[in-house]
């Protein structure tokens, strides 16, 4: 009996080793810190557990947080080459590779989270995912919140567009974000995400624009005194996968990935939206001076920025995607 038990244990060990050896490695990159207060990381951990459970370990998810695999351009290149299998990446870098994504940088489009989610989860988001796949070889499963973007700076309170004049503002690395800031009278300096805290600390720029999650997660509040709650853009993190890797999966593995992204997306959205809803309390507690923006002042921002940014987007990518987005928003309002 002992000999039989040993043989069975040995067989089980061999099976485990064989299973581990045949597991498909999925490198998953994101840019937030590796703790459960970070929506990206909490969602990534949920994805890991979900996929490995549904595939019985057939896919080995390895999470690389905090830019461990490189900056945004390196990660996107890795997705196209297949050296990185999956990533959650923010809008600016995506727009630099897939220009139509820049349509989402047109400011003051969405009235609330429900509207933004409905548009991106509907026909508009599906069409964009199909087009991105065809043009880049990167598969977009969906989007979660990167936070409603607000302006911060270390010079003065900003309550109206005139208060932006002369400020040096960091923007994401895509031209559309330059157009947004310059339409309000500030100067724009593109800076990649990993370099942003240093740029603020060293005074390379006076300010930046981001959601509450990123302001807190990267400790940007340490170098910024004022935050203006103008909510100019609903920013996104896209769940992206190398199509080469996706096509290497079995049908059941593909289904598991798609289902588990949905789980991750719900967690990610919920955490980020909760932080947005409590922006004033969270940032005040961090020592920032919160500048409320009234509906009348927000209208002033919209009238200054929206036409200029839309014109830039249309010039860059044509009118098709801006028109599609307008139609999707109109359809939501009509329901």
TrEMBL record:
GO terms for biological process: transmembrane transport. One of its GO terms (cellular component) is outer membrane-bounded periplasmic space. It comes from Paracoccus homiensis. It is found in: Periplasm. NCBIfam families: dctP, TRAP_S1. The keyword rRNA-binding does not apply. Keywords: Periplasm, Receptor, Signal, Transport. The keyword Transmembrane does not apply. The lineage of its organism: Bacteria, Pseudomonadati, Pseudomonadota, Alphaproteobacteria, Rhodobacterales. InterPro entries: DctP_fam, TRAP_DctP, TRAP_DctP_sf. PANTHER family: PTHR33376, SIALIC ACID-BINDING PERIPLASMIC PROTEIN SIAP (PTHR33376:SF4). Its main location: periplasm. This is Tripartite ATP-independent transporter solute receptor, DctP family. Belongs to the bacterial solute-binding protein 7 family. Residues 1-23 form the signal peptide.
């Amino acid at each position: 009996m002992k000999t039989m038990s040993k043989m069975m244990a040995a067989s089980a060990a061999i099976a485990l080793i064989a299973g581990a050896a045949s597991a498909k490695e999925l490198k998953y990159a994101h840019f937030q810190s590796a703790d459960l207060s970070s929506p990206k990381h909490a969602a990534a951990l949920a994805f890991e557990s979900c996929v490995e459970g549904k595939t019985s370990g057939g896919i080995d998810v390895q999470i690389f947080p905090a830019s461990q695999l490189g900056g945004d351009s390196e990660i996107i290149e890795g997705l196209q080459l297949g050296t990185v299998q999956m990533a959650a990446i923010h809008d600016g870098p995506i727009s630099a590779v897939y220009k139509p994504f820049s349509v989402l940088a047109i400011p003051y489009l969405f009235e609330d989270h429900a509207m933004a989610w409905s548009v991106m989860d509907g026909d508009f988001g599906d069409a964009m995912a199909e087009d991105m796949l065809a043009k880049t070889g990167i598969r977009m499963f969906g989007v979660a919140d990167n936070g409603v973007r607000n302006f911060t700076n270390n010079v003065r309170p900003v309550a109206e567009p005139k208060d932006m004049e002369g400020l040096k503002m960091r923007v994401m690395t895509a031209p559309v974000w330059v157009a947004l800031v310059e339409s309000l009278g500030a100067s724009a300096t593109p800076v990649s995400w990993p370099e942003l805290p240093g740029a603020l600390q060293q005074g390379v720029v006076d300010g930046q624009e981001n959601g509450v999650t990123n302001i807190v997660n990267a400790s940007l509040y340490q170098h910024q005194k004022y935050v203006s709650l103008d909510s100019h853009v609903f920013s996104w993190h896209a769940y992206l996968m190398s199509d080469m890797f996706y096509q290497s999966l079995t049908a059941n593995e593909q289904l598991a990935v798609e289902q588990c992204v949905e789980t991750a997306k719900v967690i990610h959205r919920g955490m980020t939206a909760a932080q947005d809803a409590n922006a004033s309390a969270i940032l005040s507690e961090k020592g920032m001076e919160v500048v409320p923006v009234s509906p009348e002042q927000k209208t002033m921002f919209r009238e200054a920025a929206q036409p200029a940014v839309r014109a830039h987007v249309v010039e860059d990518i044509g009118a098709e995607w801006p028109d599609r987005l307008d139609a999707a928003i109109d359809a939501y309002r009509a329901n």
